[in-house]
């Protein structure tokens, strides 16, 4: 059960962040702020206490706070972001999390982005991607292993992060892009594959009994409605232009 979230206000220079989605157009700051506020309000409406951190002008991607840590019930693992332009964001997330949890860190040659880490009950999937390497996954597995969690590493072929393609939608259900539909590491789960043209909506966020999903993806919406959970849609157009999604914009935890 999540009770808290940490988010960060996007900086005025957020459109200078990393992106390979230039074909979607230049991201607009005032619209981004509006959509970010709607995101925060949705989390509050679900009963979460939301801490809002100040923008970090030196890091235009810093509002994608998910990549800077992985928070479990017992410990906050501060990440070591794999993109050089983002490495440093984790320094300012640490005090925000240390108020709530003991902290541990991914260090040295190990890199890890929180966007590559998906928790399903006592299991963590860690995507090995351009951002997260084997050493980062090894350090992460050791830290959370001390608290009884199992870690399974999964290669990420296409897509930025593991959670760009795989997310938990309650019970034993995972929402996956076609790339992950035959993934052996996901055996034992019921896989729901995003329909053609709807890969972006694989990044759907489960908050307690509610699924938050990007608007404009009717096939995914139908899959989510069939779960019987509450479903909320948010317009994610400006975040998407910067390769981000719903999970990327917050750290969720119980405190
Ligand atoms: C980046 O390339 O790092 C950012 N522009 C997008 C990060 C999205 N984060 C996430 O999927 N967890």
Q: Can you offer a commentary on this structure?
A:
The protein is α/β, with parallel strands linked by helices. It has one domain (4-253): 5-stranded Propeller (L-arginine/glycine Amidinotransferase, Chain A). It contains 5 helices and 15 strands. Helix 1 (29-45) links the parallel strand 1 (4-8) and strand 2 (49-53). It starts with a strand and ends with a strand. The mean pLDDT is 97. Citrulline binds at residues 17-19, 61, 64, 66-67, 83, 86, 115, 160-161, 164, 242-245, 247-248.
Q: How many β-strand runs?
A: 15
pLDDT < 50 stretches: none
CATH-defined superfamily = L-arginine/glycine Amidinotransferase, Chain A
Strand order of the largest sheet: 2-1-15
As for the CATH topology, it is L-arginine/glycine Amidinotransferase, Chain A
Major β-sheet profile:
3 strands, mixed
Whole-number mean pLDDT? 97
| Percent of sequence in beta strands | 15-25%
What general outline do the C-alpha atoms trace? Answer: globular
* Number of helical regions: 5
CATH class: Alpha Beta
């Amino acid at each position: 059960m999540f009770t808290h979230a940490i988010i960060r206000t996007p900086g005025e220079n957020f459109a200078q962040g990393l992106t390979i989605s230039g074909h979607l157009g230049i991201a607009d700051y005032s619209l981004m702020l509006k959509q970010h506020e709607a995101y925060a309000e949705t989390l509050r409406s679900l009963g979460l206490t939301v801490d809002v951190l100040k923008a970090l002008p030196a890091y235009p991607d810093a509002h994608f706070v998910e990549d800077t840590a992985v928070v479990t019930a017992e410990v906050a693992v501060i990440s070591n972001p794999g993109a050089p332009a983002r490495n440093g964001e984790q320094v300012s997330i640490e005090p925000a999390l240390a108020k709530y949890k003991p902290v541990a860190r991914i260090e040295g040659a190990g890199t890890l982005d929180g966007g590559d880490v998906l928790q399903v009950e006592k299991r963590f999937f860690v995507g090995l991607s351009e951002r997260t390497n084997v050493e980062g996954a090894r350090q992460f597995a050791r830290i959370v292993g001390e608290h009884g969690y199992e870690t399974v590493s999964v290669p990420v072929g296409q897509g930025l992060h593991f959670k760009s393609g795989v997310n938990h939608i309650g019970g034993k259900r995972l929402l996956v892009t076609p790339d992950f539909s035959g993934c052996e590491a996901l055996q034992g789960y019921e896989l729901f594959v995003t329909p053609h043209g709807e890969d972006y909506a694989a990044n759907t966020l489960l908050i307690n009994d509610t699924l938050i999903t990007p608007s404009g993806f009717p096939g995914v919406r139908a899959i989510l409605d069939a779960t019987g959970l509450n479903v909320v849609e948010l317009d994610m157009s400006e975040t998407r232009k910067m390769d981000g999604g719903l999970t990327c914009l917050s750290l969720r935890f119980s405190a």
